[in-house]
Specification:
Blueprint: E1 3-5, H1 6-15, H2 17-31, H3 46-71, H4 75-79, H5 83-89, H6 93-114, H7 119-128, H8 131-156, H9 158-161, E2 163-165
Parallel strand pairs: 1-2
Length: 166
């Protein structure tokens, strides 16, 4: 089990919910050597994978939308795993719905979305996949509240996310 110092968690919580969750995901990334691979996936449990997937989801969509998320290699990790279901079970129904709808687009166009591209082709994908635009707007509208719900869930179920040490 991944260990995190209680002091680190308390300090992060004082800075806000994003920093609180980041303490956990930073520990997960450290455990897997900075990147999720088929060889190291078993080092994290389902709850930990869900939080890490949420981090990638939030960072990528905030920076460049679903097209960037998929082009940066996170599509399979997020859409081929039960991330949406897990987020719904944690109380983040809005993010869950967004992911389910994005998965439909991803599944229908996976080969095209995941192919190697030039910068020009990458930019053109934003036009080709405008159906992500509405989902990204919904994400921006619900992200803060849904992140608060997830942070509360993590706080109430710490033992599922890490071993807290003195």
């Amino acid at each position: 089990m991944i260990q995190i110092a209680e002091r680190k968690i308390m300090e992060a919580a004082e800075k806000g919910m994003d920093e609180f969750l980041k303490v956990f995901t930073d520990a997960y990334l450290e455990t897997v050597g900075g990147d999720i691979t088929a060889e190291n996936m078993e080092k994290l449990n389902g709850y930990q994978h869900t939080l890490l997937a949420l981090r990638f989801f939030s960072e990528e969509v905030n920076q460049g939308g679903f097209v960037q998320l998929i082009q940066n290699g996170y599509g399979g990790y997020i859409f081929d795993n039960p991330v949406a279901k897990a987020l719904r079970q944690m109380g983040a129904g809005g993010l869950s719905k967004i992911l389910y709808k994005a998965k439909e687009i991803f599944d229908a166009h996976r080969a095209e979305l995941e192919r190697e591209t030039t910068e020009e082709a990458f930019a053109a994908m934003y036009v080709d996949f405008e159906q992500f635009d509405e989902l990204e707007e919904k994400f921006f509208y619900t992200e803060e509240e849904e992140t608060r719900i997830i942070a509360q869930y993590v706080d109430e179920n710490l033992e599922d996310f890490a071993e807290i040490v003195a």
